[in-house]
Specification:
Radius of gyration: 19 Å
Structural class: alpha+beta
CATH architecture: Sandwich
Number of helices: 1
Number of strands: 6
Number of domains: 1
Largest sheet: 4 strands, antiparallel
Strand content: over 45%
Distance between the termini: 50 Å
Length: 94
């Protein structure tokens, strides 16, 4: 009987995680310059002005970034990096 109760508890816990995970998304991208070269170390800012949500991160050595577990919605993604003594700033709609 105890094994059945434990199984039911674990099954309910997993079901709750599945439902919870459906309310979030992931934003994935790569920051490149005009020639297509990747930009490592770029500052990426993800914002949703309607919710007041902001998350900042830095691209990896391949210029890639991943923003996990963001609430589903519309976001502005801005990348900024110092490239050849000039600042690169681009706004994207995700």
């Amino acid at each position: 009987m105890r094994k059945v109760v434990n199984f039911i508890f674990i099954a309910l816990f997993c079901a709750c995680l599945t439902v919870w995970a459906q309310d979030t998304a992931q934003i994935v991208g790569t920051v490149t310059d005009a020639s297509g070269a990747v930009i490592p170390g770029a500052k990426v800012t993800v914002t949703d002005p309607q919710r007041g949500y902001t998350r900042e991160l830095t691209t990896n050595s391949a210029g890639a970034y991943v923003v996990s577990a963001v609430p589903i919605g519309t976001y502005n993604v801005t990348a900024e990096a110092k490239v050849a003594e000039a600042f690169f700033d681009a706004a994207l709609q995700a």
